[in-house]
Known about the structure:
The protein is mainly α. It has one domain. It has nine helices and no strands. It has helices at residues 3-37, 47-75, 95-116, 118-121, 123-133, 136-147, 154-176, 179-184, 188-194. α1 (3-37) runs parallel beside α7 (154-176). The longest helix has 35 residues, at 3-37. Bound molecules: protoporphyrin IX containing FE (HEM).
Amino acid sequence: MSGTLASTRALWxxxxxxxxxxxxxxxxxxxxxxxxxxxxxxxxxxxFVTERLHRNLSLLVLVFLALHVVTTVVxxxxxxxxxxxxxxxxxxxxxxxxxxxAVALDLLLAVLVTSLLRVRLGHGAWRAVHWLAYACWPVxxxxxxxxxxxxxxxxxxxxxxxxxxxxxxxVWWRLGAPNGSVAAVAPLSEEVARHGxxx
Length: 199
Ligand code: HEM
């Protein structure tokens, strides 16, 4: 096997692996975000743990997504340009499936930018974009199943099904979360103070 072929193959494996890891991390981030929005907490699991996990995992999503996009474009085996990663449905290669990936990436970028500008934007605008961004999860899932080489493998289908069950269960739980239990949880600031840690 020539060196070029070997490195192209390595990049392809990296694209697939980083795509799968990004989806798992994104799923965890969404589930934690939903949990956090209900202000759920317990004596063993204070709310700041959920919030920090949600924040740190979302940063890891961006790291693995960057790897996913870079390996895709640098690979060069199929014609995918840098622009195709952010401008949806214009790619010469599988425009629909790659376009969905670009939509998911754009939504995540919108969350990143509005989170960085949160103080200037105000809570309402930030929150609106944040909720909209949850749409990136089903879009990314369909992208992965639509274009992934592993989409036909049992392990990928099982991972996608597990991710769907996790998010649907979190949404179902959130919709049914009684107001009393949500309100009964102390505000985040009080909890942080009780555990002696700054935000
Ligand atoms: C949040 C955004 C994204 C997520 C969660 C994601 C996730 C995934 C997943 C799970 C797969 C299937 C991997 C496999 O079958 O092993 C995949 C495939 C792929 N993704 Fe993404 N993706 C995202 C965005 C993008 C973007 C913006 C691009 C464009 C550069 C892209 C390019 C690709 C390509 C080319 C494949 C097919 C790789 C193969 O040959 O199997 N993805 N993605």
